[in-house]
Specification:
Elements: H1 26-34, H2 39-43, H3 48-65, H4 68-80, H5 82-87, H6 91-166
Helix pairs in contact: 4-6
Keywords: Membrane, Transmembrane, Transmembrane helix
Transmembrane segments: 57-80, 92-113
Protein name: DUF1003 domain-containing protein
Length: 179
């Protein structure tokens, strides 16, 4: 993780005491604690014990059914009833077998596989965005440190200029008499 502490501004050692005091945003600490949100984090959260149980059962079923092996198994299962549907020579039964048996049974795990791929892509985007935000924060802290160093140099220059205008430059010459 990136160190999110900025250089101490306004410290007693700095001549630029009153110029700027960095106050980190509360989200910085929260971001360090939680990290990026992942789809898998949200799948097991529910309101109350029943909600958590339902979420866990749903995740287990989704993981079990959402594989291509399940799609192959469901295809074989659907094909078991195909000979009976063909022997009936009834168009309605054939259409019903295609729509209700084959398509629903086989497409279910394939759709879940697709959703799992999309969720993994969303998780990767979330992780990338998190890392990008962390890099931007690091750069902003570096800019703050650079500005603090510049403030200290400017304050020394201001102090030196103020000291040179108030210090005597030598004995003053008396004014020449007017003729």
């Amino acid at each position: 993780m990136t160190d999110t502490t900025a250089p101490a501004t306004g410290s007693s050692e700095s001549p630029a005491t009153g110029i700027f005091t960095h106050v980190p945003h509360p989200r910085i600490a929260a971001r360090k604690e939680t990290g990026p949100t992942k789809t898998s984090d949200l799948r097991t959260k529910g309101k109350g014990p029943i909600g958590r149980l339902n979420a866990r059962v749903g995740v287990l079923i989704t993981v079990a059914v959402g594989t291509m092996w399940t799609a192959y198994l469901f295809t074989l299962l659907a094909l078991i009833s195909l000979p009976a549907a063909v022997k009936s020579h009834d168009t309605i039964i054939l259409v019903a077998w295609i729509a209700q048996t084959f398509l629903q049974l086989v497409l279910l795990p394939i759709i879940i596989v697709g959703q799992n791929v999309q969720a993994a892509a969303a998780d990767q985007r979330s992780e990338d965005t998190y890392k990008d935000a962390e890099a931007v924060l690091h750069e902003a802290l570096q800019i703050q440190a650079h500005l603090q160093a510049q403030d200290e140099i400017l304050q020394r220059l201001i102090d030196a200029a103020a000291a040179s205008t108030t210090a005597p430059t030598g004995p003053e010459k008396p004014a020449s008499p007017a003729n």
